[in-house]
Amino acid sequence: MDAVYRFAAPADAAALLRVYAPYIETGVTFETEAPSLEEFTRRVEAISRDYPYIVCERGGEILGYAYAHPAFERAAYRWDAELTVYLAQAACGERLGEALYRRVLALLRPMNVQTAYALVTSPNPRSERLHERMGFSRAAYFPDTGYKCNRWWGVTWYEMRLGRRENPPAEVRSLRDIPAEERERLLREGE
């Protein structure tokens, strides 16, 4: 059965949290406690208001998700987005992370996002390979920057340029400003 990709909805939060929660016991995320369902629902709602939040499912079961959100707080950074991807443990190795990322990146371009960033806990060979296969380049490495699971972890910043640097750049658009038909087409074409 083929995987289906669609936009996340707040009603997906419980399934998304089931995908995410096992990573709390690893160095992959620097969160040390799983968020409540209420908090996770709030995150899905807040992110998907203006940015792509995509789920991958097969047979009605969510296998993973990816989303983008503002990378930094200050206004001059508004052309930058940070990407995140998580897969259910049983779905790792199927290249679903790449398929999810392709869709998120396809949706960021008409939003006029210029640079996509990803922060990867290091070492994390699977995620490092994913980002390198996708065309991200290493922008920075911060050794021993987070302490979790009785050890220090580094963080590698990856970046991907999405657009030409125009002066001035076109203003960033909300995902909601892209017509629904175009959003759906980009979701399908991310294959």
What can you tell me about this protein's structure?
The chain contains 5 helices and 7 strands. It has 191 residues and is an alpha+beta fold. The protein has a single domain, classed as Gcn5-related N-acetyltransferase (GNAT) (Aminopeptidase), CATH 3.40.630. Strand 4, helix 3 (96-108) and strand 5 form a beta-alpha-beta unit. The longest helix has 14 residues, at 37-50. The chain is globular. The two termini are 16 Å apart. The model has no long low-confidence stretch (mean pLDDT 94).
Write the layout of secondary structure elements.
Elements: E1 4-7, H1 13-20, H2 37-50, E2 53-58, E3 61-70, E4 80-87, H3 96-108, E5 115-122, H4 125-133, E6 137-148, E7 151-161, H5 180-189
Parallel strand pairs: 4-5
Antiparallel strand pairs: 1-2, 2-3, 3-4, 5-7, 6-7
Helix pairs in contact: 1-2, 3-5
Number of strands: 7
The main sheet comes to:
7 strands, mixed
Number of domains: 1
CATH fold-type name:
Aminopeptidase
- CA gyration radius, whole angstroms: 16 Å
Ranges where pLDDT stays below 50 over 5 or more residues in a row are none
Mean pLDDT across every amino acid position: 94
